[in-house]
Amino acid sequence: MKTFTHLLQHNILAYWTDRMQDHTRGGFYGRIDGTDTLHPDAPKGGILHARILWTFSAAYRLLKDPTYLHTAERAFHYIRDYFIDKEYGGLYRELHADGTPLQTKKQLYMQGFALYAFSEFYRVTRRPEALALSRELFRLIEAQRDPIYGGYPEAFTREWHPLADMRLSPKDANEPKTMNTHLHLLEAYTNLYRIWPHPQVKEALTTLLQLFTEKIIDKKTHHLHLFFENNWKVKSQTISYGHDIEASWLLYEAAEILQDHSLSPLYLKIASASLEGYQPDGSMLYEKEEDRIDQERHWWVQAETVVGLMYAWTISSDPSFREKALQTWKYILEYMVDKEHGEWY
Is the predicted pLDDT of residue 1 greater than 80, yes or no? Predict the structure, then answer.
């Protein structure tokens, strides 16, 4: 069986260093399609660039290959120079291929990923600029916190005014609060607390954990609710198996860094609930809405399943979690990995 490290280095990271760097206009290309055809004039996404920055920063931290640090630096400089709104703060959602703003909407999901990336880049470089950007973005996000009901609204205009269409994507419900954004803010704040253990970060991270336990996690089923009104009234019946298993380990990491060990049984219940979507071949279904099951197998869901189940095994020592994780890993190698061109389908 191929190792995780081999797949990471030769199938995934090499794909981005060798094919996706835009040496003409800077940053990284915004699109390459399923036939491996590059679209050099496609828009450049802020979420994509933030994820590239986090990925190559983390890869350098673990593997010490200077190529990964160089790639992380490229992403950091491009985000700093082009995605950051110098007038109103925060990051643009999307740029034209030449680096000029295209979507100026301020999605907190996007801001969270940038914070996650800046803090990871600081972990490996100790660059004061990365820490300063992390602190600035944290304070900007916190300024948007709902003072009445708690939590964070989904999106704003460029000038940080209320917005009619808050959706992250067309498939999402147009509701003011979502599980997804809160989950990735929690992820970002966890990483920020690693590099800057400020009392305000601790308070915000602790409050996010409480929101999950009190508002977002269904106390009966241990699945996550996905969409909410401002007052946290639930507005969705969909079960997202990938988000369930992802949340189980992100919540655990947040609690661990806060040295709160009281909720481990809850994380195992979330992981176990997600296994309602686990299939005999090791794959995880996408989602379920009432009696309608989405049979698609998405790459990120399979990846989160491996990570989440390995965390569950570590927490519980139950070998069944590890066995299922290995089965999903085999499924990924067989079906998700593009063995001809590189990367995953």
Answer: no
Question: Residue 117, SS3?
Answer: helix
- 155 is written with which tokens? 């999106």
Give the three-class secondary structure for 251. helix
Band the pLDDT of 2: cuts 50, 70, 90.
low
The answer, yes or no, to whether residue 248 has pLDDT greater than 70, is yes
- In angstroms, the CA 344 to CA 337 distance is 4
Tell me if 163 sits within 8 A of 227, measured CB to CB. no
Q: For residue range 276-287, what is the model confidence (pLDDT) as tens digits?
A: 999 999 999 999
Helix (H, G, I), strand (E, B) or coil at 228: strand
Helix, strand, or coil (residue 268):
helix
Nearest to 234 by CA among 247, 223, 248: 223
Distance CA 154, CA 48 (A): 19
Q: What percentage of the chain's residues is helix, strand, coil (to nearest 5)?
A: 55, 10, 35
Q: What pLDDT is recorded for position 334?
A: 97
What residues contact 345, with CB distance under 8 A and at least 6 apart? 34, 299, 335, 336, 337, 338
User: Are 213 and 159 a contacting pair, CB within 8 Å?
Assistant: no
pLDDT tens-digit readout, 168-220: 998 899 999 999 999 999 999 999 999 999 999 999 999 999 999 999 999 99
Alpha helices per DSSP H over the chain: 4-6, 14-19, 46-63, 66-78, 108-125, 128-142, 179-195, 199-211, 241-257, 264-274, 299-316, 319-331
CB 281 within 8 A of CB 273: no
